[in-house]
Amino acid sequence: MSWSLDLLPLSPCMELGGPPLSGLLWTLLLLFLWYCYRVGSDPPSCRSHVGALKSSSTLSVLSRSTMDTGRLAPKAVPAIAMETGEEEGAESYLTPVLSYAPFPNQAAAGSRKLYGALQEYAKRYSWAGMGRIHKGLRNQARMNDRASIQKPHLFYLPDVPSIPFFPRDAHRHDIEVLEASYSIILAEFQAVYQRGIDTKLGWTYQGPKGQAVFPLYNAGVCVASNCRTCPCTYRTLLSLRTFISSNSLGAAGFWVLGPGASLGGTYGPTNTRLRCHLGLQTPAQCELVVGGEPQCWSEGHCLLVDDSFLHTISHNGGAEDGPRVIFSVDLWHPNVAAAERQALDYIFAPEQ
Questions:
Q1: Which member of 4, 57, 168, 216 has the lowest number of beta carbons within 10 Å of its beta carbon?
Q2: pTM, to two decimals
């Protein structure tokens, strides 16, 4: 098909059995016919190439969608008959826990009991957010067997940032509340201390000779008679935001260490808590070493200690220096999530 400009009339308009057409309309008509000619003459390969591009784009979108669906779909955790010895470090604590996998064969009876409590909690509430606790309970046997400067003997929560001494900002509110109540807490301690250290008066002996404790909370249980003796201190405890008061990992009370006494290298039971020490009477010759880092107490000020690290306490002063006295309160580790705290309250409930 071809067109020749010689066929065009020179007059501005012409008749084709109807009304006259202007030159502009003739120009538009010629352009349209030229376009139809060019489109009709395109080789089929070009048209098929355009279609292929569209098809491949659609397939690409579908394949990405399929891949994303496969990646996001939760994988069922198979039942494990026995521990294989493979490291679970590649698993994220955010990975959903979807099965009740049997506990490792070498796990102690106490760890199996805790794992059973976690299962009961998940049945009542949810497995959501339980990845780290699930992993920690399964790996507790390995934790106890390894040599480490940090080795909590009861429960280790994986992937929790750990240092021997934490900055004040980790629990600024609770620290400021305790320090503001220093004079009241000290006065109530002195009233209790002057009555004498006697188990009949609510005192207990712990650790080395010369160390005694007047507990307000013991393993998550309120010691009602002692709290009535120190009502202002008790109310201060209740005003704290992160005090562990509902499970056996938490305690609070007055700790007295006499001159010449020392506590050898020990580990705390868990890394899910920090011990806050408010100095009440702190002779100069007293020292606390946690994870190889030494610190000294100061009267009226708090120290935040992760006692799951190897730690020692010593009072090298003389009788004239008097005892070292601190008010110790167990607070949640700031990196333990709210859902994990609730689960740990259930797992480590005092009655279990």
A1: 4
A2: 0.71
